[in-house]
DNA sequence: TTGTAAGCGTTATCAA
DNA sequence: TTGATAACGCTTACAA
C-alpha cells in the first residue's frame, strides 16, 4: 500500500506544514541527490564544478537556506547558539555586558539567546531550563544569590560550559570573570581619606558578592589609615534601589554625627545619594562604584571607580567560546582592574 | 545483516555524542515505549496513572529535558523562539525596547534570539539570515535605512511574521509600531514658541524616518505661529553622534544671528547640545526628543518630549505573538503618543 | 491504555 | 564523483 518506496515522489506530501525549501527541494530542482546538495552547501567532499554550479543555481532560485535546527540534531554538531542570562537591561551595566558578549559571539558565528532573570532564583532556574532545552552550546550567567548547585550537572556531566560574570555562583564550580571589587572599594575609600575625610559612610546593596568585597576594601583602607570604623556608617540596604539609597542618605546626613563623605557601591545607589543631597540642599563628598552617563555633567561632576564593562562581556564570551571549542583546563577566575576617575564630588573637602 | 529490527537494542550505540538523556533513555528506564514518554511529557493522549508516575520517576532520576530543537523539526510545530534585531544596546532606547520585548516573549514561553546590526545594512541582512536559519517563529526589527524588500519573501511566502519598531522599513510591508514623531516635533517646537522664542534651531540625525517626521512637526508648529522658517537653523548631521551635535551647536551659537532655542531630535544629540553649552558657558532654551536618566539632575533640568519606550517593545512583542498565533489581518500601524515634560531648559526665555 | 512505524531536514557512512 | 541509507530526538497517525 505504500507507494512512496517504489514510486519516485517528486512533490511534497500534501500535509506539509513548514514551508521553507529543504535540501530535497534543491536536489529535485538541480536533478541531483540530496546528499550532493549537502556537500555543496557545506563545502565538504568532492563535487564536480559543473554539478556544484547547478546546485548553487537551484539554491538561489528557490531561496534555500540551511535549517540549523535540523543540522544541530546530528551527533557531534552543536547548536551554534549560546545563552545569556542576566538582569534588567535597563541597567547600563547589563546592557554593555550584553552588547559586548553578543558582538563577540556573533562574530564567531554564534547566535545568542537572551534571557533576563530579575533577581529571582526561581525565574533564573526556569530560564536556564529553557535555554538548555534549546540545546545552547554554552551559558553566560550573571548569577543571583541562592544555591546554584543545579548548574554543576549542566556544566559537568552535560558538557555545557558555563561562565559566570560579575560574581561567582554559590554552590557551582565554573569559570568566573570579575572586576576587582576589593581594590575598587579600597581605591574609593582611600581617595576620600586622602581628601581629609575620616567619617566615611558606605552604602551597600544586599549582601551580594560584590558588595561584600567592596566593603572589605573599604574596611582595609580605613584600617590602613588608622581610622576606627563606625558601624553606624555602614548601611546595607534591603533591595538596593535608588529610592532606598536616597532615604538612607537622608537619614545619615541628618543624624547627630553625620559623615562627611559617602562611598556608594552601585550606580543606582549613587543616583540616590545625589538625589538626597539635592533635596537637602547639602553636599557631601561622594565616590561611586560604576561610571554612568552624564556623571561629568552634573552640578558637581561625580567621582567614580569603574572598570571596563564591555571588556567584561567580551572576555566572558571569548572564554566561553574557548570552552565550547574543547578547552577543558581547570576553572579560571579572571579579575579585571578598576580605576578611579576624579571629577569633583570626591574632592569636596572636610569643612 | 541488520540486527536492529529483530534484536531489541537496549543500550546506546557507542558513537553517541550528544550526552543529554533522550526520551528513549527515559523509556528504557521506565520500561515503556518511547511514545508513552512523549505522551507524559506533553500531557496528551491517555496514560494510566501508575505508568505516568513510573515515567515521571525515570525523568527525574536521569534529569531528562525535552529537546526543543528536535521537537520543532516536526511539521506543524514552531520553534518557540523569536528574533530581535536592533541597534547598539548601549543606547538606552534599544535597551528598554529589548527588555520589554524579552519580558513579553518569555512570559508567553518564547525564547529570544538577540542580534545587533549596528546601522549596517549588510550586517543586518546577514543577521536576518542567521535568525531565519534557526527558524525563528517571528522577527522584531528596528530597520536601518536601505532597501528591505528581501524581507517581503520571509514575511509573505515563508510565513514568518515581522514587526518593525520605531520606523517602517523601505520596500517591506509589515506591521509597524511607531511613536508619534510629528506630534512630538510639533509639541517640542510649540513649547518653545510659547516661551517667546522665534529663532528656533533644529538638530537632526541623518535623514532617517524619525528625523524627517520630527522636522515636519517642527515646520508645522512654526508655520502655524506665522514664523518664517530659517534654513540656517535646520541642521542635519551626517552621523548623528554626540560629538557632531556638540560641534554643530557650537557653530550655531557663535554665528552672527544665533538661535535662542534648540530642538534636538535624539538623546545623543541633546547630550551634545548640553556639552556645547557648558563649554561655551552659555545657555539656550533646549527641548530634546527622548527622555534620559538624570535629565532632571543636571544644572538646568532638561525639558523633553518622550514616549513610553517599554510600551513600544511590549506592544511590538504582543503584536508579533498574535501574528504567530495566526492573526492574518492586513498590516497594522500603531502610533504611540508623545508627551512633553517641562523641566527647565525649555523654559529659558528670550533675553 | 499502550505500542509500531514513519518522517521532520540534516549529515556520516558506505557502496557504486 | 555521486548516491542510497541510516540516524539525530521528537510527534502524529494508526494498530493492537
Automatic annotation (TrEMBL), chains A, B:
Residues 22-65 form the HTH cro/C1-type domain. Keywords: DNA-binding, Transcription, Transcription regulation. It comes from the Bacteria. Residues 21-75 form the HTH lacI-type domain. InterPro entries: Cro/C1-type_HTH (IPR001387), HTH_LacI (IPR000843), LacI/GalR-like_sensor (IPR046335), Lambda_DNA-bd_dom_sf (IPR010982), Peripla_BP_I (IPR028082). It holds the Pfam family LacI. The keyword Lyase does not apply. Residues 1-10 have a biased composition (Polar residues). CDD domains: HTH_LacI, PBP1_LacI_sugar_binding-like. One of its GO terms (molecular function) is DNA-binding transcription factor activity. Residues 1-24 are annotated as: Disordered. This is LacI-family transcriptional regulator. It comes from Streptomyces avermitilis (strain ATCC 31267 / DSM 46492 / JCM 5070 / NBRC 14893 / NCIMB 12804 / NRRL 8165 / MA-4680).
Amino acid at each position: 500500500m505504500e507507494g512512496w518506496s517504489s514510486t519516485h515522489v517528486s512533490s511534497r506530501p500534501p500535509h506539509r506544514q513548514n514551508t521553507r525549501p529543504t535540501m530535497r527541494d534543491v536536489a529535485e530542482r538541480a536533478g541531483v541527490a540530496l546528499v550532493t546538495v549537502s556537500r555543496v552547501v557545506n563545502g565538504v567532499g568532492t563535487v564536480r564544478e559543473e554539478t556544484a554550479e547547478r546546485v548553487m543555481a537551484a539554491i538561489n532560485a528557490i531561496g534555500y537556506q540551511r535549517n540549523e535546527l535540523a543540522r544541530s540534531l546530528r551527533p557531534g554538531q552543536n547548536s551554534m547558539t549560546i545563552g545569556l542570562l542576566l538582569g534588567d537591561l535597563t541597567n547600563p551595566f547589563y546592557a554593555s555586558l550584553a552588547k559586548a558578549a553578543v558582538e563577540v559571539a556573533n562574530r564567531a558565528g554564534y547566535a545568542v539567546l537572551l534571557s533576563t532573570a530579575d533577581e529571582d532564583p526561581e525565574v533564573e532556574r526556569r530560564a536556564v531550563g529553557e535555554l538548555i532545552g534549546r540545546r545552547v552550546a554554552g551559558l553566560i550567567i550573571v548569577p543571583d544569590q541562592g544555591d546554584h548547585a543545579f548548574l554543576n550537572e549542566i556544566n559537568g556531566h552535560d558538557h555545557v560550559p558555563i561562565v559566570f560574570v560579575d560574581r561567582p555562583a554559590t554552590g557551582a564550580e565554573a569559570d568566573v570573570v570579575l572586576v576587582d571589587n576589593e581594590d575598587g572599594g579600597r581605591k574609593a575609600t582611600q581617595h576620600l581619606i586622602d581628601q581629609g575625610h575620616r567619617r566615611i559612610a558606605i552604602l551597600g546593596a544586599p549582601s551580594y558578592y560584590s558588595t561584600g568585597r567592596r566593603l572589605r576594601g573599604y574596611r582595609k583602607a580605613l584600617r590602613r589609615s588608622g581610622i576606627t570604623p563606625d558601624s553606624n556608617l555602614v548601611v546595607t540596604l534591603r533591595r538596593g534601589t535608588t529610592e532606598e539609597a536616597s532615604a538612607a542618605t537622608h537619614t545619615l546626613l541628618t543624624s547627630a554625627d553625620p559623615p562627611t563623605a559617602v562611598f556608594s557601591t552601585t550606580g543606582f545607589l549613587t543616583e540616590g545619594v545625589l538625589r538626597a543631597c539635592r533635596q537637602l540642599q547639602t553636599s557631601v563628598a561622594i565616590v561611586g562604584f560604576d561610571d554612568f552617563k552624564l556623571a561629568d555633567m552634573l552640578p558637581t561632576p561625580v567621582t567614580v571607580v569603574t572598570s571596563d564593562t564591555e571588556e567584561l562581556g567580551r572576555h566572558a564570551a571569548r572564554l566561553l567560546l574557548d570552552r565550547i571549542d574543547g578547552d577543558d583546563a581547570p576553572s579560571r577566575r579572571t579579575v579585571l582592574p578598576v580605576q578611579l576617575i576624579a571629577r569633583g564630588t570626591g574632592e569636596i573637602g572636610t569643612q
